[in-house]
Protein 1
Amino acid sequence: MSIMTEFTRRDRVFEFLAPTQSPVDVRHGPILYLEDVTVSFDGFKAINNLNLTIDDGELRCIIGPNGAGKTTMMDIITGKTRPDTGSVWFGSRHNLLNMNEPEIATLGIGRKFQKPTVFEALTVFENLELSMAADKRVFPTLTAALTGEHQDRIDEVLDIIGLSDLRERLAGILSHGQKQWLEIGMLLMQKPRLLLVDEPVAGMTEQEMERTAELLTGLAGKQSVVVVEHDMGFVRSIARKVTVLHQGSVLAEGSMDQVSADPDVVKVYLGEDD
Ligand SMILES: Nc1ncnc2c1ncn2[C@@H]1O[C@H](COP(=O)(O)OP(=O)(O)O)[C@@H](O)[C@H]1O
Ligand SMILES: [Mg+2]
């Protein structure tokens, strides 16, 4: 199978390279599907029979105490960690356990780590431009001027992340929150279908948290977003469906009110801190 038919989406850049159908087929189900996934580290089950389903366009919050397996779960989805057993599917066509990390990323799964990793010596605009160029699908454009389509996408993303007025500013002098938004913008340049975001508001001011809530809720619908977060106030402000992880499994799932009222959840998590 050629790289082009496998990885090029119709809405991405070169029409003539594109297959007639998006490679992520969600007509018959969710965008992400984990079934009976188990991972052991030295005999300790960090993930233990985990079942998780994320719908296309959904915004899901994942909470759970330290060591619950949240980061390991993201590592499994992105191909960084291989489960011992279970299945992991992206749409109905992509068995992620048969793919490596770069292949999974190219499929449209973007991951935002906790620490911002923007290029500080470049402007906001250049960071977005570079993240597009780093995308192998648009590699040929490195040698050409930015097309109108690319310019439009950068403008669109600048608007989404609220940094249009700061486009010429060096990323190094942005606030912590602005850097986080820029990094989300860099992921958005590649039009991911699923965005995994690990503790987005750690270290942010109240105002930045509010803006981040708007940003993430605004993304839902256009792509699926999975947010792992410790800050309960923040989770409450953006939550639709919440999954509580505990000891590598789903302890509870539902609205924030439902899971907060769940006695098991209160016992293992909500009563513990916050
Ligand atoms: N590479 C690893 N080697 C050994 N143990 C690990 C490794 N990664 C995670 N763990 C253990 O697995 C459990 C789940 O960790 P993690 O997924 O980081 O939890 P969370 O992100 O919910 O805090 C923890 O007990 C952690 O110590
Ligand atoms: Mg973690």
Protein 2
Amino acid sequence: MECTLEAVKADIIRLLKKAASDRNSPMHTPVVATADADARIMVLREFDPNTWTLRFHTDARAPKVEVLEKDAAVGVLFYDKAEKVQIRCRGTARIESETPLAEQAWQESSAFARRCYLGAPPGEKRDNPSSGLPEWVEGERPTEEQLEPARENFAVLLVTLESVDWYYLSTDGHRRAVFDDGKCRWLTP
Ligand SMILES: Cc1cc2nc3c(=O)[nH]c(=O)nc-3n(C[C@H](O)[C@H](O)[C@H](O)COP(=O)(O)O)c2cc1C
């Protein structure tokens, strides 16, 4: 890769687009951290390079949603060993469950993906190991009609990126640049 700031910006866009579209990319499942010092793996569903926004899907009842509603600061961490690149993002989150975007994301999800939202809220206590799903749907593909009550538990988590820190590992010397406020600048690794 040519080592210019323009090339770094293009590389970030290339990697985040690939992360969203290629389920085999290690960047498809980044770590998403919230202001309560908690972090979890989430599947990246989309990256919009025009608005620098990431889209994730979540259960609207998940503990992270309550945390995000109090403090919208989010960190998203990506690493691809083969690409030798780490991408560290800071951004601001918003949760949407009733907007056209949330509805479209719901419609585009498979029945098996939507089945997750039929169950109990994430994090409920159980005496025995449990999927949280009702017994009738365990191992089954639910019908559209059966999925209707799940819709209200589904939300999209949108993270608008404010800074993106790109770190490239190289035996010739690592390289690091940060992209924020519409500008890209070099940093020491
Ligand atoms: C490979 C993998 C992918 C996951 N994808 C998602 C996801 O897209 N959305 C999500 O809310 N949780 C996802 N999870 C579960 C989260 O890591 C987390 O356990 C769950 O969302 C509850 O998080 P919370 O207690 O912080 O709300 C995934 C877990 C794994 C291991």
Protein 3
Amino acid sequence: MTQTIESPRGTDLLSLLSARGTDRQLAGGFGPPPAGLAADTIRLLGGVPADEALPTAELAAAFSAVLSDPATLRYSVLPGIEPLRSWIGEREGVDPDRILVTNGALHALNLIFDAVLEPGDVVAVESPTFPLALREASYYGASFLPVPTSDTGLDLDGFEEQLRGGARPKIFYVIPDFQNPTGSTLSAEARTRLVGLAEQYGFLIVSDNPYKELRFAGTAVDDFDLSSDNVLRANTFSKTLGPGLRLGWIAAPQWLIPALSRIRSTQDQHSSLVTQSAVARLLRSEGAFDRIVDGGRELYRQRSTVLVDELESALPGQLHIVRPEGGIFLWLRASDPSVDLPDVQTRARGLGVDFSLGRYFDPTGPVGYLGSARLGFSNQTVDNLVTGANRFAEAFTQAVR
Ligand SMILES: Cc1ncc(COP(=O)(O)O)c(C=O)c1O
């Protein structure tokens, strides 16, 4: 660290920082936001639900109602309020004692990593995967064992061979439904096999499943089996009720609850009682959650269809796209591996459309998946998706010329 920030008494304040507080290299994360993009750039960046799919009126009514009782502004209890944990427990199929309410899925992951990881531990991850989870695990000193995933599934044969060869991950971090970024869903057989490997080789499966509810085609697959002591699920209301709520949960085996609670007790103690109470009130209304989620599913089905159809007709045979069955983004690959997608992105930004390069999802650093990209369709109108796809196609055509 070369920078110094002096206090009036001449101490270099930056020297007060711990190793965790310094700018040491963390794995994962996206590059800095590009400067100088036109204001009307169509951002196919994914990650956020459609504004229209979020229950603003229901939440406004619920917040107003719970705030009529001043007790809602008191401190809450560490694991989360009972009505909310009961609803979540029922959804997850476990006793509410095994549910801890968190400030979203990233916070859930943070608690889990903090409770389990020591510097030097290995976390097995799908490759490609969600870089912000990697960043959190690397903050606790983890390194990564990438396990390739693609439309043909997760390479569990290769992973098992690594285990037999002595690899000893402490955690397998996995996004089972509409994976970020590939949109793929892990088969039931693969889930069962992974639980067997976790029990045999002594690692934990951390299933981060924020897109589970957003299936608009195909058949649902059950999440990882919580009857195993090696399985945790992290989940969130971010993609269904809104990320601004910062409300999620962990469903953990009983033996891990004390450790996770201990970590939480060193932090903020509990999630906002106001938010928990309002969400619990909304969920109490019969069928409300399913109705809200149904609206989102229908919107995302239409939008993904428009984006895929438009890209396929503008660039026939030039892209390999797996048609999403749910979630909020699609993953594509240029059929010609020599196409330079960073160049396509630069041109696309000039034409007024932006997207995420595949390389940001490479757990070994931003070097792989050069011919791939993730395009989000959730929070753009159909008109914008048509225009965005055609601008993308124009940039792509310019780059291969
Ligand atoms: C796989 C995955 N996990 C977690 C999150 C973040 O969830 P939350 O907003 O609840 O922290 C996202 C959001 O992009 C995600 O894609």
